[in-house]
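Human: I would love a firmer grasp of how sequence relates to backbone shape in proteins. Could you go through the record with me and say what the backbone is doing? Here is the record:
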Amino acid sequence: MSTPPLRHLAADAKAIVKLANQFAREFEQEYVGTEHILLAILRHDGSVGARVLAHFGVDEPNARAAVEDFVQSAKEDTWVFGRLPGSPNYRRVIELAIEEAAQLESKLIGSEHLLLALLHEKGTTGQRALAKLGVTLKSCRAEILRQLGA
C-alpha cells in the first residue's frame, strides 16, 4: 500500500507532514506515525488543528508526555523492518484526512482534517494520546466547525 498523494494538502498540512518527519527523527524512529502527526499539529501554531487542541487544553508538553508513555511501551512490542516513509496508520490517517476534507467540502486538506483523521484511527498512538488528554472525535468536530464558522 503506497502513501496517498499529498498534492492536495494545504500549506499548513504540508508543514505538518514535514514537522512529523522531524519528530520521527527526534524520537529516533524509522517510521512516521500518528504520534508524530499529533505533535506536528501542536507545533504548527496558528493552524485550525492547533487552535482546536488548545481549546481542549492540549499543548505540546502534555501531548508529548502522553505520546512518550505509549511509545515507550510500544517500543518493547514493535519490530520495524527496513525504512518506511510512514507507518500503515500514518498512511491511513492521510487517507482519512482526504475523506474528512471531502465531507467538509474543502478542496485542500488542512490541519483540521488531519486532526479529525487522527481521532478516527482508533488504537493508534496519536488517537490514544488525544483520548488520554480528553479529546473526542465528536467534541473536536464541533469545535472545528465552530472555528471555521460552519
Observations:
- Residues 11-26 form the longest helix (16 residues).
